[in-house]
Amino acid sequence: MQKSNRINHFIGILIVTLIVLITAVIPLFFNEHYYFIDDTQNGAIGQWFELGKSLVHGKFPILNLSAQSAGNYIMEGQWGVVNPLTWVVAIFVYLTPNFLISATIIKIFFLLLLGVGTFELTRTFTKDVKLQILAGAILPTVAFTAYIDASSWVTGLIVFALLPWFWWSFRMFLKYQKAYIFVVFVVGYSLIATGYVYGTIYVVSILVGSFIQNLLEKNWSVFLRVTLISIVLAGVTFAIYLPGILTSAAGITARDSGLSNNDFMSPNMSSLFNSFIPNALGDVTNYWGGDIWGAPVLYISWILPIVAFIDFKRNPFTNIKNSFTGELIAMAVVSIFLTFAPSEMGPIRFPIRNYSYVGFTVIILIIFLLSKGKIKFNKTRIILSGTIILFGVYLSWSQVPGNGLSFLKYGIFIFLLINMLVFVAVKRSERRMLFVALIVMGQIFITIQQHKQLSVSTMGDQQSLQTYTAVKKTTSVFGKNPGNVWIAGSMNPSSSWKYTLYSNYWYIGSIKTGAVYTPIGYAKYNTDLKRQWAQGTFAIQSVDRLFTVDKTTHMRIVDLLSIDTIQIIKSGDKQDIKDYNRITKTTPTGWHLYKKESQYVIWKKDKITKKVGSVVWHSNNISVRQVVNTSRTIKLKIEKLRGKSGKVVLSRLSWPGYEIKNSGAKSRISTPLRGYLLKTIINKNDVGKTITIHFTPPFFNIGIMLIFIDIVIITVWTIFSFRRKFM
């Protein structure tokens, strides 16, 4: 019997893997770039490449001075700097010469992980292999995951793929103890350390749901286990998120919108009632009114109308001890609350990002009800299922009347498919493979039809370069050793890749620049220097600001920032073009024209003398000599000082976390120059000393210590569990 169960388990995994693999590959037949667009191009690939390069060369990236506003990687969170799972992905990207191929492999891998994880999760509450396969097959095609996270917002895909595994291992740990604590920790750590807050929110939801349920049931042994693992994972959460939270609390970041609602990326709750129609567009608004995506991003699954066949008179919620009802209720409450919440709640924005978790909850709830309740197949239930489907068709038609016939065709197909599924489940329960065949047919047919009609996810395609060789060819326009580079103006994806890069592609090109991706950034830097978009675009007019003289230091800002090369791209509206022509007409003093083409110019400084992060100015009454300059540390020899104190300015942003490390030193970190450049006040008592200024993100060292303590606790716990097993 046990051997038979293992065989069924293995076959189930194979079937789910095959179905998910097929549905994941289908989009590529219509658009080979499907898994390589928008933020995967702009952010993830370059970010992974830079992290992979650093790790391969034995470096642990925390602060990148050249990236300026985007260079505080610990604060950014989603770099996954302390996440071994992200390390593996990053090194893979760095070592793979084709980014289209590496992105596609990564995305499909995590879709498979999502499907198999869901299959494993459902095994913890039902022995029905058909339902296990059904859940594992359909969850990866929840449309927000398939169209948005899988194509663009890849960290969203990663944490969503890990969540079923966390839930499964958590339930196994509560039921069997043993060494599952190690699996819970590894999966939970990997999910939290990815840095995508929504995944962490739902880990907390699962833990809180279980905590409350076991408290109410007075199941003290399980309650204690939930409490202990919650404390351990709380340590990881603090370590990952508190550095960013404390940095933002200093009031310097660009993400501080408070509580507000502009309906951007806010789904309408009514869309849930036709979320089983595969081509229903739903209602997701943008800033300018109307739908932001022409894709069925609110589609959950064609299986939803199967609820019509569940007999609710036989209460499926009886005898639910040892089930995960508390966890499921918590997931449902949190996912629905956040999905339909105000569009801006501090750092939490874009409510639609929670929609996949609504789909996850709905699907698991249906599987739960099917496993606990009784299914009835009769004329009344058939009519009820048809009524539900017809209502969904009507809602879809009322939104887009021109697609009415298409909606009706889908409705008929879903009606027939679900009725055949239920018939087989009730009347031919022994014909398991027929049930599976219907799932396969439904998944493949609907996925093909979706991508036949809507072959792209409607996220932006920057037509990014696909190979490292192509990127290096583009960066050759800057010549050898361009130093610290400033990019002004926006590129045109259809024509500009021959002479410039975009967003995190600058990392791949090994160009030191602040024109890289950050969704957060340093607010006053961004405002002063006219940063326009999270992707790293600075306005053409930023060049005017660079050559403005700072009133305090009487130096040009371009010199305060240690800029060595400037590329100005001809782009934008009529005023931008007019300003481009005006700015590029004359080369500033101390600079020379390196290259001029029809769509861009490149200026280079006559003499490159300062490394980014160096001392760029000091008051007249002080003489300092720079001894060391690394990304996190600068050492200054204080040689002379007239008066009580002197001022020193460095070409690095004044992130919270800089401090003078010398014991007994009277010098201090001062208010930043222009609101963002690091400034120190040197005290006369420190003359003759070498002052060490060092950067450590707030709470970072404590966080690392917490992680280390967690690892020790989990290791001891795991060893103890094994010893108990074999004693």
From TrEMBL:
The keyword NADP does not apply. Keywords: Membrane, Transmembrane, Transmembrane helix. The keyword Transmembrane applies. The chain crosses the membrane at residues 7-30, 85-114, 134-167, 179-210, 222-242, 324-342, 354-370, 382-400, 406-426, 433-449, 699-720. It comes from the Bacteria. This is YfhO family protein. It comes from Leuconostoc falkenbergense. The lineage of its organism: Bacteria, Bacillati, Bacillota, Bacilli, Lactobacillales.
